[in-house]
Amino acid sequence: MKILNIVPDLSSGGAEKLVAELNQQFVIRKHKSITLTLCNNKNDSTQSLNHKKPYDALKAPHRLISWYLKNGPFEIVHLHLTPAQLLAPYIKLIDPQAILVTTEHSTTNRRRQLRFGTLLDAVLYFQFSKVVCISQGSRQFLTKDRPYLKQKTSVILNGIDSSRFRRSEVEQDPTLILSVGRLVHAKNFHSAILALKNIRDLNFKYLIAGTGPEQQKLQDLIINSRLEDKVKLVGHIQNIPRFLSKGSIFLTPSNSEGFGLAAAEAMASGLAIIGSNVPGLREVIGEDNESCLLSNPTDLDKMSSNLRAVLMNSALRERLQSNALKRSKKFSILDSSDRHLCLYNHLNSPEII
Known about the structure:
The protein is of the alpha/beta class. It has helices at residues 14-28, 56-59, 62-71, 82-85, 88-94, 117-126, 136-145, 189-197, 215-224, 240-245, 261-268, 281-285, 300-312, 314-327, 333-348, and strands at 2-7, 32-39, 47-51, 76-80, 99-104, 130-133, 153-155, 176-180, 205-209, 231-235, 249-252, 272-276, 292-295. It has a seven-stranded parallel beta sheet, with helices on both faces.
């Protein structure tokens, strides 16, 4: 089967990481699968249209058309995130027989807040044969606002390659708290820093791996909270498995999450999870006081209390670590890729067409 995945770029976000790993699995299964990015990328396994910004692809569609005429046609074209989704009409124009699929990667979407968002979504989603949702939470939020999509959606959970992650009891520092994610409002690192300010009397170090527009704001908050010796923004980390292997606790304070890929990777690394009680993420990290400790993302007192409990209670910490490691087995990239291929085959079958 010829499969094309189009994604804005290959930054460190969960959607981009999923696309890269799915493409790898499709190739292993002997499918002709290509990932096409709209912007420059440094990954040799992908091709790129080499735009400076994702939305530049809409201003210069001739690059996509030229690339597609050279490399197509494809049986399945899977478009991820809004800049890629907006290219669907060009794909249909070039290749009317291509089956278009998209993925809802989050429980929130800025289009839904626009005055003309309802109309835009109706036009946009009409072009796709199937909308994949990465969790029940993302499907629930999508179909609540757009009920006409209920019959068009399928839930395929994200997956991770657990063989890349390991629990290292020798290296793990019981006082080291880690987070991974873009430095944006949705990740809510602002609240995480304020929650840690409440327990600054304890011995801990908190490292946040990631970059983003809120970097300076978060750095200022760290300084104003007098936490420079305890909280560090460490920027982009290339080797996430190595980074996670050194920690003991993983903090995911997000305001919203479609799934929570970073949390799943932390679970596979055997870290105790402290997270937000929000849809999508809750499906991954599990029930409160079993495989994680939960709090509402704005409840700083509860978040502080959870952090204090895990730092001070080694038995609780070890129980959460063990249960998180077991739960991580539910989220396999092998299962996710199998389900994607099953969906593609179903859509591509003569009975469907």
